[in-house]
Design goal:
The complex is a heterodimer of chains A (about 475) and B (about 140).
Chain A: H1 10-43, H2 58-67, H3 87-97, H4 110-113, H5 158-167, H6 176-186, H7 188-195, H8 214-221, H9 225-247, E1 249-251, H10 255-265, H11 270-273, H12 276-286, E2 305-306, H13 326-331, H14 349-352, E3 365-366, H15 388-397, H16 430-440, E4 473-475
Chain B: E1 5-6, H1 10-18, E2 32-34, E3 41-45, E4 57-64, E5 75-82, E6 87-88, E7 94-99, E8 103-109, E9 115-125, E10 128-139
Antiparallel strand pairs in B: 1-10, 2-3, 3-4, 4-8, 5-6, 5-9, 7-8, 9-10
The chains are: A mainly alpha (about 475), B mainly beta (about 140).
C-alpha cells in the first residue's frame, strides 16, 4: 500500500511546510491589516461596523476547523514522478508551462487556458486552444492533492494530465515527435540536467503520434519500437517537469481562514472578518444546505465524482463524465502502471482499487474545490451557470439528470418527507440563497473583508491590497 | 490532522452538525454481526492506525460459523456507500489476502467524507452465500473531545 507519509521526502515536506507557514503568516498579517482598515473606515462613518455575533457549537467548530487551510496535509508524494520535488524541475516546468512553441500554431501554452493571473483558469465556459474544447478549464492550485485529474478523472497523475492537452487536437494540437524536437532545440540544457542525455531525434518524422491525426498516426507507425519509446519518454518527462511546477503552487489563506482562526481562538476579531450574512451563509454551508457533504476539507472538495443533474452543454450529446473515463485511464500508457512511470506496481493502489462498474459514474464529474470560487465564473464542468446564485438555485431545484441519475433529491409537490436512508432535499429560501452566495465570496485570498450591505458592490477600490486579477496562489520554490 | 475517528459517541455530535443529514438515531454500529441468514458470524476490524479522509487503507475481517469456528477460503465481495448521499464507496475494495483463523485482509478502503457509511459484504463459504452490512460513522476529530 502507498505509505501514509514517505520518509524519503520528509525534509522536503518540512521545508514546504515551513514555507506554507510563512505564507500563512503573511496572509494572516494581511488579514489583520484588512481588519484594521475595516475598523478605521467604519469609525469614519463610511460603513456600519461589521458584526457577526455568530455562536458556533463545539461540533460546528470542529467542522470549521476541518475547512481551515492550516489543516491541509502536505501535498502527497507521487511515486510515479521521480523529479517532482526537485527545484530544477519546478523552474523547467514553469518555462514549459508558459512556452507557446509547444503548440501547433505557436500561440497556445498551458498558461493560455490556465492563466496564472486568473487563478490558473480562463474565465470561459469552454476553453479555447488551437480550437474550442468541450469543458471548462480547471484551476491548478491544489491539484496535487487529487487522485484523479480532469473533470472526469481520466488521468491518474499530474504529469500524465499535463500530456493530454499537448496532443489534443483542439488544445495545443501538437504531437510527441514535435514536442521532443522543440525540447531538443529550446530546452536541451534544462532537460539534460534533469533527465540525462536526450536521444537522437534525427531522421524522425516531424509530426508523429499514436494519438494524432491519421497522418500523424501513420508517421508514428513508421518509427521502430525502440525510438518510439525514446520519444514517448521525452514527452513523459515534459509532463513530469510541468507537474513539478504545478505541484509547487499553493493557496494563500482566504478571509474565511482568518475568520476560522479567530473563532477557534475565541478572538472577538472574528466579528470584523465576516459580515453577518456571510456568517449565516457559512452556517448553511456546513449544515442545512449540505454543501460540506462533498465540498469538504481545506480544499472544499472530496475529490470524487458525482452526478448532480447539471444540464449538459449540448443536450444532443450529453457528456458521460466519469463513466467514459475509467477505461481510458486504465489503458493509458502514461498511467502509474505504465512504462514511463517511476512507481513500483504496488505503489499504484488507486488504479488497482478504482471503481469502474458503478452506474452512478454515468454523468458524474469531479467535485471542484471552492477556494477563490467567487472570482471564477462561469461554473460547472462546461460553464453552464454564469453566477453562484444560479449554482445554488440548481441544487435547490435538483432537476433530474439528462444522463444517469442525480444524487440530489427533491421534495416534489405533495411528496412525503424522505426517509432517513435517503438524501434529504436541499431546501433554501431566497434570503438563505443570498447568504450562501455571500459566504462563497469569503473563500478568495484577495476578496475584500470590508463589510458592506449584502447587495452593494464590493468596495475593492478601498482596499489597498486588492490587486485585480491577482492569483490566489503563491509560488513555492 | 484530519484523522478519522470511528466512535459511537460521535453519532449525536454528527446529528447536531449536519441537521437533516444526521444518521438514524438507532444506527447499529456493532462490529460483530451475524450475516442476514445467520450462516456466518462476521467481525470487522478497522485499522489500528486511523486513516485520513481520502487516504487508502486496509481493514481486517474475520468470518466464523455461528458456533465460532473459523471459516477459511470464503469468497468475499466488498461494497458500500453513503445511504444519505446516494453514492457508493469511492474505491472498489477487495479481499486481497487470507489471514490465519478465518481472517481476511480488505485493501483499497477509502472514505471521502465524514458521515454514515455502510460496508456491505457478500460472503460465499462452506455454508453457502450470505450477506452482512456494517455501519460506520466517520467523523473529524472534535475540538477538545
Amino acid at each position: 500500500m502507498k505509505p501514509l507519509t514517505d520518509p524519503a521526502n520528509h525534509s522536503e515536506e518540512t521545508t514546504m511546510q515551513r514555507f506554507q507557514s510563512m505564507v500563512w503568516m503573511l496572509g494572516s498579517a494581511a488579514a489583520a491589516l484588512f481588519g484594521a482598515l475595516t475598523v478605521t473606515l467604519a469609525d469614519a462613518g463610511e460603513q456600519p461596523p461589521a458584526a457577526a455575533p455568530m455562536r458556533w457549537s463545539a461540533d460546528e467548530r470542529a467542522v470549521l476547523a476541518s475547512l481551515s487551510l492550516k489543516r491541509l496535509a502536505p501535498v502527497p508524494a507521487d511515486p510515479s514522478n521521480a523529479v517532482e520535488r526537485q527545484g530544477a524541475a519546478i523552474g523547467f516546468g514553469r518555462r514549459l508551462f508558459e512556452d507557446v512553441r509547444l503548440s501547433r500554431n505557436g500561440a497556445v501554452s498551458c498558461a493560455t487556458c490556465h492563466d496564472p493571473a486568473r487563478q490558473f483558469q480562463d474565465g470561459l465556459p469552454v476553453s479555447r486552444g488551437v480550437g474550442t474544447g468541450s469543458r471548462r478549464a480547471m484551476p491548478i492550485v491544489g491539484a496535487g492533492h487529487a487522485t484523479w485529474l480532469f473533470w472526469d478523472g481520466r488521468k491518474d497523475s499530474l504529469w500524465s494530465q499535463a500530456l493530454g492537452p499537448l496532443e489534443d487536437a483542439v488544445e495545443h494540437g501538437t504531437n510527441r515527435t514535435r514536442v521532443a524536437q522543440r525540447v531538443a532545440q529550446d530546452h536541451r540544457r534544462d532537460y539534460e540536467a534533469l533527465f540525462g542525455a536526450l536521444p537522437r531525434l534525427d531522421g524522425l518524422p516531424g509530426d508523429a503520434s499514436p494519438k494524432g491525426s491519421a497522418a500523424e498516426q501513420a508517421a508514428w507507425a513508421t518509427i521502430d519500437a525502440r525510438r518510439r519509446e525514446e520519444v514517448s519518454r521525452v514527452f513523459a518527462n515534459v509532463g513530469k517537469a510541468i507537474a513539478a511546477y504545478e505541484k509547487s503552487l499553493t493557496h494563500a489563506p482566504a478571509r474565511l481562514d482568518a475568520y476560522i482562526d479567530a473563532v477557534l481562538r475565541g478572538d472577538a476579531a472574528s466579528r470584523t472578518l465576516l459580515r453577518a450574512d456571510e456568517a449565516r451563509g457559512l452556517r448553511l454551508f456546513i449544515g442545512k444546505a449540505q454543501c460540506v457533504g462533498c465540498h469538504n476539507g481545506p480544499l472544499f472538495s472530496d475529490q470524487q465524482f458525482h452526478n448532480t443533474g447539471v444540464p449538459p452543454r449540448d443536450a444532443a450529446r450529453p457528456d458521460r463524465g466519469r463513466a467514459a473515463a475509467t477505461a481510458a485511464v486504465r489503458a493509458d500508457e502514461f498511467n502509474c502502471l505504465g512504462p514511463f512511470s517511476d512507481a513500483r506496481p504496488e505503489q499504484c493502489q488507486e488504479l488497482r482499487f478504482m471503481v469502474s462498474d458503478d452506474p452512478a459514474l454515468e454523468g458524474a464529474f469531479k467535485t471542484p474545490g471552492l477556494r477563490g470560487v467567487a472570482d471564477r465564473a462561469p461554473y460547472m464542468h462546461a460553464g453552464q451557470f454564469t453566477t453562484l446564485e444560479q449554482v445554488v438555485r440548481h441544487y435547490v431545484a435538483a432537476p433530474h439528470a439528462a444522463l444517469g441519475h442525480s444524487e440530489l433529491t427533491h421534495r416534489h409537490a405533495g411528496a412525503a418527507a424522505p426517509k432517513h436512508a435517503e438524501r434529504a432535499p436541499i431546501e433554501l429560501n431566497d434570503a438563505e440563497i443570498a447568504d450562501l452566495v455571500s459566504f462563497l465570496g469569503t473563500l478568495g485570498a484577495q476578496s475584500s473583508p470590508l463589510p458592506a450591505a449584502p447587495s452593494a458592490a464590493r468596495p475593492d477600490h478601498a482596499n489597498p491590497l486588492h490587486r485585480p486579477g491577482a492569483a490566489t496562489a503563491g509560488l513555492v520554490h | 490532522m484530519n484523522r478519522i475517528l470511528f466512535t459511537t459517541l460521535s453519532l449525536a455530535a454528527l446529528a447536531a452538525i449536519t441537521g437533516c443529514m444526521s444518521p438514524p438515531q438507532d444506527l447499529d454500529l456493532a462490529l460483530t454481526r451475524p450475516s442476514i441468514d445467520s450462516k456466518y458470524l462476521v467481525t470487522l476490524q478497522p485499522p489500528a492506525r486511523p486513516a485520513a479522509i481520502n487516504q487508502l487503507h486496509a481493514w481486517q475481517l474475520r468470518v466464523a460459523t455461528p458456533a465460532g469456528k473459523p471459516v477459511t477460503q470464503a469468497r468475499i465481495q466488498v461494497d458500500g456507500g453513503m445511504p444519505q448521499h446516494g453514492h457508493g464507496l469511492p474505491t472498489r475494495p477487495r479481499v486481497t489476502r487470507e489471514l490465519p483463523d478465518g481472517g481476511y485482509l480488505i485493501e483499497g478502503m477509502k472514505f471521502s467524507m465524514t458521515g454514515w457509511w455502510e460496508i456491505k459484504l457478500a460472503i460465499d463459504g462452506p455454508a453457502g452465500a450470505d450477506r452482512v452490512t456494517f455501519n460506520t460513522v466517520v467523523a473529524e476529530p472534535g475540538l477538545g473531545r
